[in-house]
C-alpha cells in the first residue's frame, strides 16, 4: 500500500474518456454496443434512463467525467473528483422476461471485481450486496435500478469506480480506496472499463442461460464476509447474526441471534459498520 505522497507523485491526470476507444474491438454481444461519453451530467443513471424509450438502446453505456448529483444506494450521494475515476451506467432493456434483480445485482458487483483484476492484477473482494473492496476499503459501488418502460422491464446498472482518487475520509462512512493507491502508476481508465464491460456481458449471458449456481460460486469465492458476525439494516429493521450464504435469487442469507434463518433482499439491505 502506498503512502499519500507517493500516490500524489505518481498521479498523472488521465486523458479524457473517448467512446470510440472503449467501443473498438470490445467483442461483447450486448453490453457496450453503443457508448457515449459526457463531460458533466447530473447522474449517468439518469442519462441512461432518458435513453430507455429508444428501442435500440439495449446495452447502451453512458460515461461521464463528473456528476452533479451522483447517487448511491439507500439515498446516499456518490462523490468523485472530475476526470479522475470511472462513473458509468449500463442500460438493459429486458422486455417481458427480465433477469431477477438479485442476480443482476450480484453479477454486476462480481463483474467489477473481476474486470479490475483482469486490467490491473489486483485482487478485489466483494461485500454484500455489491461493494467492491481492496484490503477492506471500498474501491467501487454499484447501484442497480429497475423500472417499467414502454418496451417492458428495464434495468440500469450504475458503477462508480475510484481509479486515481478516493473521496476524503470525512465524506464517507467506511474507508475508501482507489486503484492508484495499490499500483505504481494510475491505470488507463479505458482499459479498466473495457475489462468490466466484458465481464458484465459474459455474466449477463450466463445468468440468462440459467447459470445461477456458477454465479453463486464465483461470488462466494470473492466474499470475505462469509461466516462473519455482522450487523445488517434491511427494510428499516436491524439484524445481527452470521452470514451463511448469498443466494442469487433470494439475497443475503443470515442466521440471526435467535437461530432463525432470514433472507434479506439486495435492493434494501446494507451491512452496517462494526461497533
Ligand atoms: C453505492 O455504493 O452506494 C453505489 C454507488 C453508485 C455510484 C454510481 S456513479 C455512476 C452511476 N450514476 C449514479 O448517479 N450513481 C452510479
Question: What does this molecule look like?
Answer:
The chain is an alpha+beta fold and 275 residues long. It contains six helices and twelve strands. It has helices at 4-10, 19-23, 44-50, 101-120, 189-208, 212-221, and strands spanning 35-41, 61-67, 86-95, 125-127, 131-134, 137-149, 152-161, 229-234, 237-247, 251-256, 261-264, 269-272. The strands form two sheets. A seven-stranded mixed beta sheet has the order 1-2-3-7-6-5-4. A five-stranded antiparallel beta sheet has the order 11-10-9-8-12. A hairpin with a 3-residue loop joins strand 4 and strand 5 (131-134). Residues 3-12 have low confidence and may be disordered. The protein binds biotin (BTN). Biotin is lined by residues 43-45, 67, 70-73, 76, 78, 87-89, 131, 141-143, 158-160.
User: What general form does the structure show?
Assistant: globular
Q: What is the residue-averaged pLDDT? A: 91
Helical percentage: 25-40%
Q: How many whole angstroms does the radius of gyration measure?
A: 18 Å
| CATH topology call of the largest domain | BirA Bifunctional Protein, domain 2
CATH class of the largest domain: Alpha Beta
Report the sheet-strand fraction: 25-35%
Question: What are the SSEs and their pairings?
Answer:
Elements: H1 4-10, H2 19-23, E1 35-41, H3 44-50, E2 61-67, E3 86-95, H4 101-120, E4 125-127, E5 131-134, E6 137-149, E7 152-161, H5 189-208, H6 212-221, E8 229-234, E9 237-247, E10 251-256, E11 261-264, E12 269-272
Parallel strand pairs: 1-2
Antiparallel strand pairs: 2-3, 3-7, 4-5, 5-6, 6-7, 8-9, 8-12, 9-10, 10-11
Helix pairs in contact: 4-5, 4-6
Amino acid at each position: 500500500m502506498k503512502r499519500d505522497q507517493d500516490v500524489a507523485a505518481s498521479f498523472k491526470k488521465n486523458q479524457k474518456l473517448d467512446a470510440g476507444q472503449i467501443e473498438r474491438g470490445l467483442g461483447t454481444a450486448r453490453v457496450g454496443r453503443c457508448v457515449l461519453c459526457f463531460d458533466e451530467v447530473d447522474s449517468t443513471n439518469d442519462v441512461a434512463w432518458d435513453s430507455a424509450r429508444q428501442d435500440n438502446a439495449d446495452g447502451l453505456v453512458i460515461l461521464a467525467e463528473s456528476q452533479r448529483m451522483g447517487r448511491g444506494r439507500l439515498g446516499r450521494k456518490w462523490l468523485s473528483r472530475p476526470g479522475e475515476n470511472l462513473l458509468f451506467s449500463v442500460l438493459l432493456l429486458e422486455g417481458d422476461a427480465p433477469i431477477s434483480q438479485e442476480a443482476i445485482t450480484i453479477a454486476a458487483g462480481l463483474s467489477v471485481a473481476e474486470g479490475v483484476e483482469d486490467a490491473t492484477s489486483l485482487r478485489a473482494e466483494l461485500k454484500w450486496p455489491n461493494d467492491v473492496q481492496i484490503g477492506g476499503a471500498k474501491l467501487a459501488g454499484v447501484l442497480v435500478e429497475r423500472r417499467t418502460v414502454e418496451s417492458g422491464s428495464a434495468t440500469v446498472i450504475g458503477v462508480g469506480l475510484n481509479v486515481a482518487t478516493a473521496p476524503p475520509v470525512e465524506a464517507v462512512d467506511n474507508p475508501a480506496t482507489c486503484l492508484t493507491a495499490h499500483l505504481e502508476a494510475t491505470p488507463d481508465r479505458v482499459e479498466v472499463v473495457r475489462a468490466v464491460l466484458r465481464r458484465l456481458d459474459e455474466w449477463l449471458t450466463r445468468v440468462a442461460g440459467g447459470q445461477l449456481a456458477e454465479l453463486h460460486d464465483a461470488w462466494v469465492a470473492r466474499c470475505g464476509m462469509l461466516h462473519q458476525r455482522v450487523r445488517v439494516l434491511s427494510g428499516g429493521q436491524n439484524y445481527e447474526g452470521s452470514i451463511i450464504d448469498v443466494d442469487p435469487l433470494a439475497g443475503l442469507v443470515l442466521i440471526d441471534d435467535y437461530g432463525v434463518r432470514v433472507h434479506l433482499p439486495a435492493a434494501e439491505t446494507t451491512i452496517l459498520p462494526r461497533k
